User: What shape does this take?
Amino acid sequence: MSLNIIILAAGQGTRMKSSLPKVLHELSGRALLQHVIETVEQLNPANIYIVIGYGAEQIKNYFKNYNIHWIIQKDLVGTADAVKQVLPYLKNSSKNPDDKVLILYGDGPLISCNTLQKLISQTKSNQLGLITTEINNPYGFGRIMRDNKNNIINIIEEKDADNAQKKITEINSGIYLTSIKNLQNWLPKIKPNNSQKEFYLTDIVPMADAITSITVENSNEVLGVNDLEQLYQLECAHQAELAKKFRLSGVTVSSNVRFEGEVEIGAGSKIGANSIIKNSKIGQNVEIKPNSIIEDSIIHDECTVGPFARLRPGTVLDKKVKIGNFTEIKKSHIGEGSKVPHLSYVGDAILGKHVNFGCGSITCNYDGINKYQTVIADKVFIGSNSNLIAPVKIGEGAFIGAGSTITKDAPAHKLTLSRAKQTTVENWKSPTRDKKD
Assistant: This one.
């Protein structure tokens, strides 16, 4: 049997107080919906259907490079109606009515692949599978109703719950696993008999002959986002989990470090306070000093970066490179043992081994229309406050005198410098200091 995925993402999210569709708000540098898509892709489903409504074109454009079947819910009248819009597509794409359907929400970004695999493995073909969790403050969530044998018999939404039901702390995640056949039988029977006058997907629960549930201990996995405060709280919890994971793998992570996207860090490395690491690979025994930003970069073993350094996309640092404070590197490859110690900019450049790139020096890579490359060979010394006007090559072992502006290739093992003649005007008088009051 094949697996089909339905992700519900049609709501506007009015409590976000934003014109941006709720599922496009970001957590850890990725859209909420992106987290869900990339998790379910690991399950190798036959199809991924995403139901959208508000901001449909904006959402489709954001995910234009993903293999998604988009379904439009014209009238936002409930989650059951949203799933119902997918039924014709499921029927056409699947020849087996017993094929599985996994239903999730686009604003629940932290559900793990392991939890979903557990749900799939433990739910038999004739059952409805669902995920629950326990939270101390269940306000706003649907409560799990169980009988005296601990079997799930229903789910009561917050607005429809009485005082006794509101005290229940086991909540519904909104994640379900069932078959195409079951959905075809159940969904037409659902009526809007509730305070919201909506078609609730939770109404399939009492229709199921058998229910399997799994309970996740980390409730953050199944919590959704309804406003910016909840997004912030979930972001904090997620960042804490990521930091914990790295610490347990041998990485020292200081306070207020933020990780975004795919990040790898080798054992023995240290990440200083207030740093941001995004879509980067960091080797072993690397030190990222405080207040540094690393984005789409590769840092090999035993490098030192920062404090207050920025590595922009396309940066590669070979072993034992030092990037100092207030230095920016962009789309450049820095060779082993080289140093760009402080107050410098290196863009679109290749630096060889054991290069010393002096304080205040820059590669001038952009002429207003095109960008050009600077190539610096091994063991070059770039004096402080030098400007290398690309395209230009600096030969092996060359010295560039401080304060130079280099517009032509500099030969190997020679001193190259360019300076204007220093002149002192003997009879000059200050127009301000000599002015009488």
